[in-house]
Amino acid sequence: MLVKSTYKGPVFIDSTVKGEGKADGFIPAHCNGSLRVSKDRYITFCATLDTNGWDAVRSIVYQIRSDSPDGQVVKEDLLVSCESGWIPFGEDYPLRKIYGMPMAFGVPKGAKKDGQLLPNQNVFAVKMYRHGLLERDGMLLNVNHHPEAWPDIAKAKHQILRVCWLQFRLNETEDDIEIIQPLQQLRQAGYESGESFCSLVDAEFMNHAMTPPVQTDNQGLSWLAVETFKSIPTDLRTHGVCATVEYYWNQQTGLYEWKRTGKIIEEEGLLMGETSISKFEDLWIIALRTWSQGGVTVWYKTDDPFTNLGKPTLHKTTWGPRHSYRCADGVLRIFKNDQNLSPYKEKRNPLYAFEVNTDDFSYSQPITLFDAHKELPFDPAFCDMSKLCPAVGNKQLLFFRAIDQRMTTEDVLEDQEDWQKRMAIAGIHAVELEYDFSECERYLQEGREYAPPARKALQP
């Protein structure tokens, strides 16, 4: 049971990596939350954001912290750099190759089962999407505002949007990482080369989930995520049709591989993507954002996420990212904004938490986790991209992006002094969730898994 939420302030609001910090005009924007990599070490991967473009992510940086997800920084460095001068479509369309939305998974160093080290301990993978932005003379040209600059951009996006990954381990002194598989396009086993990168014969592109893959077994050999692979026929954007993917640790190579892909997840007339997945004993719960019917959330509950998702439940909501997790107290929650509930009628402020009933997907009354207008100088504010960190005791941090909307829509303030004040505090912030585990413990004593229905439910 969630008994308290506390705003903890900024946790990653500037980068010390040369060329990726606020002195260069860039801010930390999209992170994986945090991944536990040993008993005393956590790692956060974060995409930096160029405020002179539309969703203009750049490079991936990382921080290793001690003792907790927001503990002392042990190491910060560049993982993957953006690249200017990328020309996949000819000289008329020079691109900046960019990387965004890092998602990491793996088993902590030193993890044991029955007193024996797990074979896949200290092997981790981090995924990220790769895309391109039109760049001329070092400056981004926003094709959302200037569509004439690239008339065929919608089709071009399909050719360049892919997911890349690399694999790494924590070094012996636990103060840095060692790359054990260099950056490469993510491809299903058996499709290591050629135009087709997976078993879906009509995959047009690949984008990945809004939350990290979820472990399926007690050793962390198998992990599931729901990824996006094609658009629906009536829309050329990079959302639309999804499928479940399994990542599995290969004993021969000592690395994770993309092992299998499920059947297409699609609903007529719904443009879906930006998925989340959670596990409850033998059941999987999948949530998908849509760009249809006012931005409904589509929910599935299934014991077989690869072949049989069953009938979906649609929950009315408003536009914006949403992220669902099974939290440390066993409760399914969705973290999102709701313009209909916002006292300011803003799309992405405040940030709310809802408990989700796992039987009928009704929502509880919202808990306001963060209101930028009460804490920060942003107007209009974006408080979104929620990422849940591993629990430490009975507390769990939720990292989220807090920025001024203008920082991702190429519409800066004319007042540069005011703009610099907003830049100074923009980045990754945190809310601490505090739980009472007594109810969970009672369920465990009765031999049941704690997954209570939502309280004070609102109707879908």
Q: What features would you describe in this structure?
A:
The chain is about 5% helix and about 45% strand. By secondary structure, it is mostly beta strands. It has one domain (about 20-345): 6 Propeller (Neuraminidase). Strands 7, 8, 11, 12, 13 and 14 form a 6-stranded antiparallel β-sheet that branches. The longest helix has 10 residues, at about 415-425. The protein is globular. The chain starts with a strand and ends in a 15-residue tail after the last helix.
The helix-and-strand class reads: mainly beta
**What is the terminal-to-terminal distance?**
22 Å
Mean pLDDT comes to 91
Number of domains: 1
CATH domain class? Mainly Beta
Percent strand equals 35-45%
Helix content: under 10%
Shape, principal axes of CA atoms:
globular
According to CATH, what is the topology?
A: Neuraminidase
How many individual helices? Answer: 4
Largest sheet: 6 strands, antiparallel
Rg computed from alpha carbons, rounded to a whole number of angstroms: 21 Å
CATH architectural arrangement: 6 Propeller
- What is the number of strand segments? 29
Query: Which spans have pLDDT < 50 for at least 5 consecutive residues?
Result: none
Topology, please?
Elements: E1 2-12, E2 26-31, E3 35-36, E4 41-50, E5 57-66, E6 73-80, E7 83-86, E8 95-107, E9 112-113, E10 116-117, E11 123-136, E12 139-140, H1 153-160, E13 162-170, E14 177-185, E15 214-215, E16 222-230, E17 241-250, E18 255-261, E19 272-280, E20 283-290, E21 297-302, E22 313-315, E23 322-326, E24 332-336, E25 351-355, E26 367-370, H2 372-375, E27 381-388, E28 395-404, H3 416-425, E29 427-435, H4 438-445
Antiparallel strand pairs: 1-29, 2-4, 3-4, 4-5, 5-6, 7-8, 8-11, 9-10, 11-12, 11-13, 13-14, 15-16, 16-17, 17-18, 19-20, 20-21, 21-22, 23-24, 24-25, 25-26, 27-28, 28-29
